[in-house]
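Reply to dn_fold:

You asked what the input looked like. This is it:
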Amino acid sequence: MYNKTNKVLQKCLTSTRSSYSHKVTDTHENIYFIPDAEKCYEYALYAPTNDGNDNALPSGILCGYTKDNDNNVVPNVKLTAVRHSTGEYNLDNYSFKFESYDNGYYLKTLPQGTYDIIIYADGYLPYSLNNIVIEPDQTYFMENIILTKWLSLAYYSFAVNGKVINALTGDNISDATIKIRKGWKTTNGSYVKTLFGAERTTSTSSEGKFMLSCNLGAYTVEISKKGYVTAYYIVVAGDSGSFSSLTTSTMVLTPVLADDEYRIVLTWGNTPSDLDSHLTYYKDDIQKNHIYYGNKSSYIDGSFIAKLDLDDTSSYGPKTVTITLDSSLVQDGGVFKYSVHNFTNHNSSNIVKRNCAYIRRE
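and this is what came back:
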């Protein structure tokens, strides 16, 4: 057991002749001491432990920012992490409460497990983020938590919208199928339906744009088209006359890859205007290759290895790198490293964090 409550409770239950048990006599005058479960549990909740042998649960860190639809910081947002799946570990201390700071940033150390995160702030629509997995000794940096203000539903219509482009060329993608699921990062289960039971769906226009009406709240958009890898994006439904900054951000589809190909796609928000992606290859801690805007393709021993396919410099992205992987390159001390440099605001280390750059590995 990893928690002192379980250890004390176990000791209390196995102690037969104590104030936490009661005596029972059967018809043959045999006497039994039966632990009183309610008293034992109450004792276990408050009993101190002095043996020094309690071990903390393996833990990780959850962090990120809380913002509104217009990308403004929302401070002092109340968050509750409810642990509902912990593998081999117990469910004691399954609920953890914390708040975002004045700058909208939050950070919480949580025991290993799978969590639902409940978000609440005065004047905003509450909702939850489901199935957030915390791994031991790992930091889970969330996408910005976007809060939507309460509005009178009688006077507003709501929708999500976006624009879909090709990760390799930057061209608009038309006729891509758009469907939505309720919730944050909900990539399976039922799609949102109309009042008549039909799936709520639409397609992108010749300009790659779409708009889909729905109720107020957070959704996961699914974008699919033959020849492309299906993509998922988080959006927040807002007033259809004034979409939030989140719903108007560019969404990216990547063409299907060959078996030996891997693709990294970097996207971000309106600011900064330019982030740089850097892919480096090391062998025995010595840098052998560097793919970036100044060297857009690379070879090792005459064989093609990687290419910077698209280098957008005017907000949103994408920056797309495709790797053709020879398995021998990652054996015997070979390592690829991917990093992001804030080219626009290279003197301010906070810009990338606060506007959230997203890296997708296909």
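The helical segments are 4-14, 37-46, 351-355.
Hope that clears it up.
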